[in-house]
Design brief:
The chain is α+β, with helices and mostly antiparallel strands and 386 residues long. The chain contains 11 helices and 10 strands. The strands form 3 sheets. The chain has a 4-stranded mixed beta sheet with strand order 1-4-5-8.
Length: 386
């Protein structure tokens, strides 16, 4: 891995920086977890698409720029450096998009990827079910084949973006006699289809970006299934790998937060304790370490390698780093940390802190990830195994 940028990469960075400086909103958008904020973030997605920045690694025919992972990391660094809004369509472009790219047909790629990159269709994740949270193999929602259609019934919960999104993707049991990982299929469902009911879930900060989804005899074409019938588990595991690995949480997000944390410390240094100083230094160093490791992983993938179970290490690290960054900032701010607005502006530290609490749970709980690390990377025996 070469740690020096080429002249072409530096020119690309300059291009991204100039575009961001000209287009990023001057004030933070309202929270993504409310209707007004979600619409504002969708408008931003379309502004990005107008510059062909929707997903820079995708082929140009699908609305991308056909760039490599190193340039994607550079793009992300400039994106967060500019303070650009969070991505409303992250479920689509970072999770479903790579899944369709790997498992979808040419017709599915043409049908779904371009509207995703252009910000025209927003996607919700529909994994969890009651009694099947982190244990996706316990899924009970069913899809019954009738001619060229599936008829879907069941319930999903804790569905990110489902309150406002256009489509959802999830696993459904297409073989009623199957158990656990067998007999599941990965199916895409329009959330305005007859029989779909969305029930928003109010979160800790009072907003309703999460939702339950109820399916009552919802009919969708079999052409909406990704890969073969009954092959959904393998497809979903690939999607989870994208979620925990490179794409969902780029290091630039945490480097930008670490930089803001250092600035906050300097503003409040006179009142800060030695322990606070140590926490700031540790958080900054870990954000840099995560960035270097991500460049290493990107280089490995570009050379033909795979991420594999190491994605679980990645997920544990970034989720705990995010929580440490925001917990340290809240400590530095003292009582002001609890205000929704500070100095007339949205308190981004409070919003970020509340969101960071969910990090060890979403994208597969850290307890599950530690089991994966123990069994697949360290070779430890499964608890209770003979």
């Amino acid at each position: 891995m070469d740690l020096l940028y080429t002249p072409e990469q530096q020119a690309f960075r300059a291009e991204v920086r100039a575009w961001m400086e000209a287009h990023v909103p001057k004030e933070p958008l309202p929270t993504l977890e409310g209707r007004v904020g979600f619409d504002a973030h969708v408008a931003w997605e379309r502004t990005l698409a107008s510059g062909n920045w929707g997903m820079v690694t995708w082929p140009e025919v699908y609305g991308g720029r056909g760039l490599d992972l190193i340039r994607w990391l550079i793009f992300e660094e400039e994106y967060y450096r500019a303070g650009a809004p969070l991505r409303a369509n992250q479920n689509g472009i970072f999770l479903l998009g790579p899944t369709i790219m790997e498992f979808g047909t040419d017709e599915q790629k043409a049908r779904f990827l371009t509207p995703m990159a252009n910000g025209e269709v927003m996607w919700a994740q529909a994994w969890s079910e009651p009694n099947a949270g982190s244990d996706m193999a316990a899924i009970r929602s069913r899809a019954v084949r009738e001619g060229d259609d599936y008829v879907i019934s069941g319930q999903k919960t804790w569905s990110s973006r489902a309150a406002f999104a256009d489509w959802g993707f999830g696993l459904f049991r297409t073989d009623p006699e199957s158990k656990r990982h067998k007999g599941l299929s990965f199916i895409l469902v329009p959330l305005d289809a007859p029989g779909v009911t969305i029930r928003p879930i109010r979160q800790l900060h009072g907003e309703t970006g999460f939702a339950e989804i109820f399916f009552d005899e919802v009919r969708v074409p079999a052409a909406n299934r990704i890969a073969g019938e009954g092959e959904g588990w393998n497809v979903a595991m690939a999607t989870a790998g994208f979620e925990r690995g490179l794409m969902l949480r780029s290091p630039a997000r945490f480097q930008a937060a670490a930089k803001r944390l250092v600035e906050l410390y300097r503003e409040r240094e006179a009142d800060a304790s030695p322990a606070a100083r140590e926490a700031v230094v540790k958080a900054w160093a870990e954000a840099e370490a995560y960035a270097l490791n991500t460049y290493k992983v990107a280089s490995t993938v570009m050379a033909g390698g795979k991420i594999g179970a190491e994605a679980s290490l990645n997920k544990i690290f970034w989720s705990e780093l995010d929580r440490a960054l925001h917990r340290t900032a809240m400590s530095l701010m003292g009582a002001a940390a609890e205000l929704k607005a500070v100095g007339g502006r949205v308190n981004q530290w409070l919003e970020g802190y509340i969101f960071s609490l969910s990090g060890p749970i979403y994208a597969g709980s850290n307890e599950i990830q530690r089991n994966i690390v123990a069994e697949r990377l360290l070779g430890l025996p499964r608890l209770g195994a003979g």
